[in-house]
Specification:
The protein has five helices and no strands. It has one domain: Up-down Bundle (Four Helix Bundle (Hemerythrin (Met), subunit A)), CATH 1.20.120.340. Helix 2 runs antiparallel to helix 3, helix 2 packs antiparallel against helix 5 and helix 3 runs antiparallel to helix 4. It is 80% helix and 0% strand. By secondary structure, it is mainly alpha-helical.
Length: 137
């Protein structure tokens, strides 16, 4: 296990990008929430990590091989632009309410990713049961 991995309380499972993204959003939300009243250096470090994460999402959303439907991609790009603006404002002036907005965005997007995983897993289970039933018939 690498030193960077040991720094986190929990780490995502390998080979599951949606769960990794959900984990990264939750981890960033946790760091932001903890740093809300921390010394300014810690606050800015947490803010920059979150900004970097959203910049990675932006880059992925702009890739030609992005498989998300155009409306979803557009919504996420708009949200990432909002995160950019909020972050720039927070780097200038710390505002607990604006931090909470970023924390809530990360948590909600993460929950959406995890719910998609749960729905996909249920669909796969249902398909397997249906296939077994058809083979038995």
């Amino acid at each position: 296990m690498t030193t960077q991995t040991k720094a986190y309380q929990r780490t995502p499972e390998l080979g599951n990008p949606a769960r990794t993204e959900a984990w990264a959003l939750l981890e960033s939300a946790r760091l932001l929430h903890q740093a809300k009243d921390a010394p300014i250096e810690d606050f800015r470090a947490a803010l920059r990590k979150n900004w970097r994460l959203w910049t990675i999402f932006q880059a992925s959303l702009l890739e030609p091989d992005c498989t998300l439907p155009a409306p979803v991609r557009g919504n996420l790009l708009g949200l990432s632009n909002f995160v950019d603006r909020q972050t720039a404002e927070l780097l200038a002036v710390r505002d607990a309410k604006k931090v909470d907005v970023l924390v809530n965005i990360n948590r909600q997007i993460s929950e959406g990713l995890l719910e998609g995983q749960r729905t996909g897993a249920r669909g796969a289970q249902n398909a397997a049961v249906t296939a077994q039933l058809q083979e038995s018939a």
